[in-house]
Specification:
308 residues, 7% strand, globular, single chain, 4 strands, alpha/beta
Length: 308
């Protein structure tokens, strides 16, 4: 297993010192090009054919610092993610997260992994509502962390990377296509966050779980989501997964769901599954959602007590 870090801090520093005319292509070629296979899988053009077309830069700019924002004024922020110890900790988190699956006899088809950490856009509400950190790991072999670097977020990046590594492993075994439904997303996010807690403890449980109290979970979220598990189409199930505020930001129709309803529900659903079946988090990660959901029918009727 080969794990490589793309040191974004070094790239950011180079772009910060570059002329305004050079920034865009430097960013495209050094930050985005190493992930070319990911863009091809996601069918995101590397370079738009026309000025207003959607490409990897457009996608980056939705939640991250855009190339033109990376100036000398940003150097103090870049410095916050520039220590060797930070990158060593991130790489250790990725290496441990993936390596434990191999140790537990899960034979990973993917052997090459690339990860990086990108600076988030402080004006992006979808990021700030997540307390300034996030990630993406759904394409096997590629893992991203997103951060507004500060004393709170920097220590949590290792847990975010563990969460994304869990996705990375799952989608080496579970097919993602147009038939993916809300049930799969609840299971997937629940597995990923349980894995992060398994590795780093409940102190690193993400705000997408901790901001939901027991009353909201039991009385508002669970009764609705249990009836929507077969819902397909990202525009249809995203509001139930992320909640109304993020749904509005993504131009989806609100469904009267609180922040990260699906994440919180999924986390407690997987806890229920692991307790009930005695299955390891490693085996559960590569188990089809339908099989897991069939085992947790009691979860929907039983009151969930947080912290149990």
């Amino acid at each position: 297993m080969n794990i490589k870090a793309l040191r974004s801090d070094q790239i950011y520093k180079k772009i910060a010192q570059a002329s305004p005319e050079e920034k865009l292509e430097l960013f495209r070629n050094e930050m985005m090009a190493p992930f070319m296979k990911q863009w091809q899988i996601q069918q995101i053009p590397f370079r738009a054919e026309e000025a207003n077309g959607f490409d990897v830069i457009t996608m980056n700019n939705i939640m991250h610092r855009s190339p033109d924002q990376i100036t000398r004024q940003l150097l103090p922020e870049i410095e916050l993610i520039s220590s060797d110890s930070f990158w060593s900790e991130c790489e250790l988190a990725v290496r441990k997260s993936l390596g434990l699956f191999i140790e537990h006899e899960v034979d990973l088809p993917e052997t090459e992994y690339l990860f990086t950490i990108r600076l988030g856009d402080p004006e992006n509400r979808a990021l700030t509502i997540n307390e300034g950190y996030s990630g993406f790991g759904g394409i096997p072999g590629f893992i991203w962390g997103t951060i507004l670097p500060n004393e709170y977020t920097i220590p949590r990046m290792k847990a975010a990377l563990a969460h994304e590594c869990n996705h990375n492993v799952r989608y080496q075994f579970i097919q993602w296509d147009h038939t993916v439904n809300l049930g799969e997303l609840l299971v997937s996010e629940g597995l990923a966050e349980n894995y992060a807690v398994f590795l780093f403890g409940e102190d690193f449980l993400g705000p997408w779980v901790t901001k939901t109290n027991a009353e909201t979970l039991n009385e508002r979220i669970k009764p609705v989501l249990r009836e929507k598990l077969q819902l397909t189409g990202f525009d249809q199930f995203a509001p139930y997964l992320y909640g109304d505020e993020i749904a509005r930001l993504q131009n989806f129709k609100p469904v009267n769901m609180p922040y990260s309803a699906g994440y919180a529900c999924g986390y407690h659903l997987i806890q229920y599954y692991l307790r009930k079946t005695g299955t390891s988090i490693f085996e559960a990660t590569i188990t089809p959602a339908a099989q897991i959901l069939d085992e947790v029918k009691g979860f929907w009727d039983e009151e969930t007590i947080l912290g149990r």
